[in-house]
Specification:
two-stranded parallel sheet; 18 helices; Cytochrome b5 heme-binding domain-containing protein; transmembrane helix; membrane
Length: 426
């Protein structure tokens, strides 16, 4: 019996989850717990047509479909539209045509040489940092230079593991998956599974409250235009939000990597009993202390890695937030893929420095539309995306690096002012 869109929408609860892919209806209630990308990311699409997300996330959809066959419970009725109500059918079709073109031109295929050279420059930075100490010994100036080089290598390794995470999605074998474990585990001391499960949610529902973990600020900040008003009306004041654009500099960039992320990483690995990722992570710290203990001792080495994380954290926060934090934030609106991604994402101007500094995440729009696309092809697809946006009247924002960073602070001040107004007068 053909299902209606309304009947599918009713199955959107934790204990009862259906979704639609290519007009076929699947009951994922039990299987969601075994989803390689994590239970949360697939549950975010319960009760919806997930076709666009399914295609975007999976490098080999045919490989994944064999897992879907046992979950099939029917199809949409012939009279039902292929898209959820409210989605622009023409835009969805045009974007699918663009994706077909991208695939046919080979823009989703990675060039191993590019990533090998990128990994090589990260390893070279680490080797140079250690080599300086062996040749010249320790001094304040050399220690600072060593810290800067290590922070740079850590940041660049972060962008590289981000690439491998997307390129190895849903595959537990292959060079991408193994390199992802190596880079995020041995070169950074973090967890591949923790990162993927968190980051895929961000891509699935960017800037959607309760679904994007990147905007779960734990009541420390109020973000966007709606959340501040909601907090203000409810008289919630966990922090002096009208000053958040100021205290952001004290607890945002400095602490998110060395404190918040590290606590999350180790708590997740132990709670999930992810001993493989824990072993990879421990290999980083073993290597680090073996290398730097002879120069700084135990406590000096702890201070060094803490300072490196402190520097890396600033880099990470500004690069990731300048393309998202000033953009639209809202509750679930069930938009089509392109509209949802463009409302939550903007680009930073292309330049050799910006490409390197951001790990090519200055092309956030293209990265979000095609999360499995290797970064060296973003600039090729960007003009095609811009043309499609112009055709359908979808804003395509490009900023300078300076404006992207200053807009982060401006957006925090604007949200804080909205909260204060609602708190005092509503």
């Amino acid at each position: 019996v053909g299902q209606t869109g309304q009947s599918v929408q009713r199955h959107c609860h934790r204990s009862d989850q259906w979704l639609v892919i290519d007009r076929k209806v699947y009951n994922i209630t039990q299987w969601a717990k075994r989803h390689p990308g994590g239970i949360r990311v697939i549950s975010h699409f319960a009760g919806e047509d997930a076709t666009e997300a399914f295609v975007a996330f999976h490098l080999d959809p045919n490989f994944v479909r064999k897992f879907l066959k046992p979950l099939l419970i029917g199809e949409l009725a012939p009279t039902e539209p292929s898209q959820d109500q409210g989605k622009n059918a023409v835009l969805v079709q045009d974007f699918q045509a663009l994706r077909d073109r991208v695939e046919s031109e080979g823009l989703l295929r990675a060039r191993p040489l590019f990533f090998s050279l990128y990994l090589g420059h990260i390893l070279l930075l680490e080797a140079l940092a250690l080599g300086l100490l062996w040749v010249w010994g320790t001094s304040w100036s050399l220690t600072l230079l060593c810290s800067l080089m290590l922070a740079t290598s850590q940041a660049q390794a972060g962008w590289l593991q981000h690439d491998y995470g997307h390129l190895s999605v849903c595959k537990k074998s292959g060079w991408n998956h193994k390199l992802h474990k190596f880079v995020i585990g041995h070169l950074k001391g973090a967890s591949a599974n923790w990162w993927n499960h968190r980051h895929f949610q961000h891509h699935a529902k960017p800037n959607v409250f309760s679904k994007d973990p990147d905007i779960n600020s734990l009541h420390v900040f109020v973000l966007g235009d709606k959340q501040p008003v909601e907090y203000g009306i409810k008289k919630l004041k966990y922090m002096p939000y009208h000053h958040q654009h100021q205290y952001f500099f004290l607890i945002g960039p400095p602490l998110i990597v060395p404190v918040f992320f590290n606590i999350q990483i180790f708590r997740t690995m132990f709670s999930q009993r992810d001993w493989v990722d824990l072993a990879w992570s421990m290999s980083f710290y073993l290597r680090f202390f073996c290398c730097y203990y002879p120069f700084f001792g135990f406590f000096g080495s702890v201070a060094l890695i803490s300072f490196v994380r402190f520097l890396e954290s600033h880099w990470f926060v500004w690069v990731t937030q300048m393309s998202h934090l000033p953009m639209e934030m809202d509750h679930e609106r069930h938009q089509d893929w392109l509209t949802m991604q463009l409302s939550a994402t903007c680009n930073i101007e292309q330049s050799t420095f910006n490409d390197w500094f951001s790990g090519h995440l200055n092309f956030q729009i293209e990265h979000h539309l095609f999360p499995t696309m290797p970064r060296h092809n973003y600039h090729l697809v960007a003009p095609l995306v811009r043309a499609l946006c112009e055709k359908h009247g979808v804003p395509y924002q490009v900023k300078t690096l300076q404006k992207g960073m200053t807009d982060v602070v401006r957006s925090l001040k604007k949200s804080g002012d909205l909260w204060l107004d609602a708190y005092l007068h509503k």
